[in-house]
Amino acid sequence: MSNMNIVCLDLEGVLVPEIWIAFAEACGVPELKRTTRDEPDYDKLMKYRLAILKEHGLGLKEIQDTIATIDPMPGAKEFLDALRDVSQVIILSDTFTQFAAPLMKKLGMPTIFCNTLEVAENGEITGYRMRCEKSKLTTVKALQSVGYETIASGDSYNDLGMILNSKAGFLFRSTEQIKKDYPNLPAFEEYDELLEAIKKAL
Question: In the chain, how many domains are there?
Fold first, then answer.
């Protein structure tokens, strides 16, 4: 195993269900089901979400109550454990520390780089802070600048930057549209297939 490789994985849709979709179902607000699979502009998507939360009087506590009921996808923790046996792994997500923390416990505390919500004392989510511009692509380039090679996998538009700019990149449980738009990217549906492809690339 080369210790100069780091595998960068998306979180939602790859290791855990989409948090916003689970929350939309739990609180009965279907408009919150929009994700980065539907809206490539993350800033636009988050402004839309925050406006809907405000309109319905929903705050951080309600979302965290839903997150407490979410489990990783079947096989995700085993996949991650097997992957961490052969490589360093970082989860790169556009989610927020306030959402991710309980899910990281269920996944065995892998390293995650994500964003932060701004929350008022009454629990209203008033805004959010991105860790950096184009966070996934920027992080992959930063890792490369300090001598690492990256291998990346994700399912959404906001994963394409890190996938296309890594030594090897794979779509995992992605949409038909993204697979059609990027026919050269290997696309997998099962963890064992993804694990094998990553091992070959290491």
Answer: 1
Respond yes or no: is residue 10 known to be catalytic.
yes
The answer to the question of residue 41 being in a domain is no
In a domain, 55, yes or no: no
Decide if 155 is inside a domain: yes
Q: Which of 12, 18, 155, 159 is catalytic?
A: 12
Cα distance between residue 104 and residue 1, in whole Å = 25
In the set 10, 18, 155, 159, the catalytic residue is 10
Residue 12 annotated among the catalytic residues of the structure: yes
At residue 164's C-alpha, the angle toward residues 159 and 170, to 5°, is: 70
CATH number at residue 158: 3.40.50.1000
Q: What is the pLDDT of residues 68-110, one digit of tens each?
A: 999 999 999 999 999 999 999 999 999 999 999 999 999 999 9
Q: Which residue has the higher pLDDT, 42 or 164?
A: 164
123 assigned to some structural domain: no
Query: Distance between CA atoms of 108 and 12, rounded to whole angstroms?
Result: 16
Q: Which tokens is 64 given?
A: 């965290």
Domain containing 100: what range? 5-16+73-114+131-201
pLDDT, residue 126, reads 97
